[in-house]
Amino acid sequence: MLLEKLVEYADTELAKDALPAGYQVQPVRYIVSLDRAGTYLPPVIDTVSKEAKRGSQRPAPHVKRTMGIAPKLLADTGEYVLGIAREDPKKPPKLDRIAEQHRQFTELVMTCAEDTREPSVLAVAAFLANGAPIPEDDRVALDASQTVTFRVDGDFPIDLPTVRQWWAKQRAPEQSEVAEAIDECIICGKRGPVLERHPLKIKGIPGGQIQKDLISANAGAFESYGMKASRIAPTCPECAEKYGNALNALLANEDTRIWTKELAYAFWVRPATTSPTPTPGATLFQPVPMVTRPQEHPAEVRELLTSPFKGTTTALSVNPDRFYGVALGASGARVVVKDWIDTTVDEAKVHLGRYFQLQELVRMNEDDQEFYPFFTLAGATVRRGDTPVSQVGKSLIRLAFAGNPLPMDLLHIAVRRNRAEQAVSRPRAVLIKMVLGSRGIVSMEEPGVMVGLNPDDDSAAYQCGRLLQTLAEIQYAALGRTNTTVVSRYYGTASASPQTVFPGLLRTANAHLRRMERDSFPAFVRLNRQLDEILWHLDGKFPKMLSAEDQGRFSLGFYHQRAQRQLDIAANKAKRAANNPAAADDPTDE
Asked: What 3 state SS string does 244-278 have?
């Protein structure tokens, strides 16, 4: 299924930019310029930039290498092209091997030049035959592990059609490695030669080796019915190259992939052959940028939130275009498929709209983001700089694209982080709301539920959260700034076992209120009324213990009350500024 869909993607989306046989897009860091006679024209050009950290990406001849020596035509590492050793103090260079690599590279170029008679290839051959005369100062500056290619009078020999055709013919017999292996391709169904080893390694999968095989077997545990290597899943050369190029293209594009520490996700759309005529001005559905960078796509996000209510998107697909997503991990040199999403574009839009609806939460100030990037939500579960567990990212992606509810484990992780930090950050409050809402613990049927303060919420846990923030406001109004606050000292205990701390905190708060009645009567009236309202909902009873679910409600009550106070302060400042600009910065209400 996965391989078939990747080949379909290659046939539709990559067809117009299809790579020549035996080519693969790769970073080419260095360019050696020559004239038509093969004379070196200094300097060597380094293509590294802020956007291309390993060099400019371009199609170049490719060879799947293991331990042996196998040169690539006209574009290879500095060891092959120039015979220079890479610097590695822990591993001295094997000069004999480097000399053989350079010899085989030179021999390959000579053969190509003789067969094609292309002037630019002949120039490179002349340069190599002359000992690749580059001054020592230029050689020292090169990283021999990076790819080097040639430009002759402004043209790249690797781009010539005759060179590409020659390389395809050279690679065909080696690519198949089939001998008498004839079988039915599991992708296209055609019977013919199948590959012993697939030609392209998959790049961009976290963990294990840098480049990995999607299909391989090198031990009895992986072999099936006596089939070894890639013949466990018989694939013809054409399909193997297509699926490899498709997957590498998806993983290389930030608009179609998401990376976490342990997984790489790729997403794509397959237009249906029976799809109706596209709406004028319609664009291809690309949800990844909205999930990873929602602040850059506010209009698209807002459209997802409103479209289900306008009837422009429904769960019943009227557009049969398919939406796919795959999660890939690593096991040594192998790619492991960890998850698979197969749905329609319309269904994916509905799920994504709900994903953002669940994020709607009151903002304390204008600087707060309305919707958070995927990485911010995942990062809210750990200390700054730490890496979230893989389950967090996987669960968020399943919610965003497949509509799966977030697991309760995420709620446990979030409330533990609240207790550890003795605070509730807005991203973590959003994540808690997403867990409760996605699981139906909090009803999300009506717009605005759990978005802002709800004084009439009948949850004791929610009211206890409000109470802790109110006690913090009373402390600040009575004493001003202090080194230790009610929140920083008691949040963890209050959120888990309210009965343990609130009676004592209320006695202290009453003393603060008596002082405020004397010194700051307006603040006394406001906070006393707020305290009475919360205690009325609690009926003077505090829960002995709170479950993880109730600790989530506690967090939201605390956050909502705190956010409401910040909004009230901002509103009072704006009102004073309108009536008396000179009094706009009066800190009385803070």
From this structure: HHHHHHHHHCCCCEEECCCCEEEEEEECCCCCCCC
